[in-house]
Amino acid sequence: MNIVVGCIVKKDDKFLMVKEGAGRCQGMWNFPIGHLEENETILEGAKRETLEETGYLVDINHMLPIMELYQNNKKYILIRFLATPKEKIKDEYDKIAEIKWMNTEEILKIPKENFRGYESNRKVLEQVQKENIYSMEIIESLE
How far is the C-alpha of 112 from the C-alpha of 10, rounded, in Å? Predict the structure, then answer.
């Protein structure tokens, strides 16, 4: 099973989107997201992926519903958070060709073939718009 984490970074009425710059998804738009690394918490992973792909440090405010995805005979668990940008600390991005702030209309105009995770990302936008989000109190660390 693969665990994928990331942040839906929102400022005012715009979302931070990334355009993949390498690999099989080159040229496709997505929210900042990536695989959870070993010995990393889901919050650490989401913040790290966002920083690596956008250059932004973020404050995580809410959690979105967890999604399961089966693709190419693999199971993925998608864990995403709603976040606000705190500070931009770098202008070099790992495997990202472009970052851009987009409003919902702009995102919905991205053609399916240019939008990585088209269905799940449209669902994420719907969840944010309907405020189908959870308090961070839902996450409890057992150490």
Answer: 22
pLDDT tens figures, 66-101: 999 888 889 999 999 999 999 999 887 778 999 999
132-to-6, 10, 112, 135 alpha-carbon distances in Å? 17, 15, 24, 10
H or E element in which residue 48 lies: helix 42-54
Mean pLDDT, the chain, as a whole number?
93
E-assigned strand segments in 66-120? 67-71, 74-88, 96-103
pTM above 0.85, yes or no: yes
Domains, the chain, in order of start with CATH, read: 2-14+21-76+83-135 (3.90.79.10)
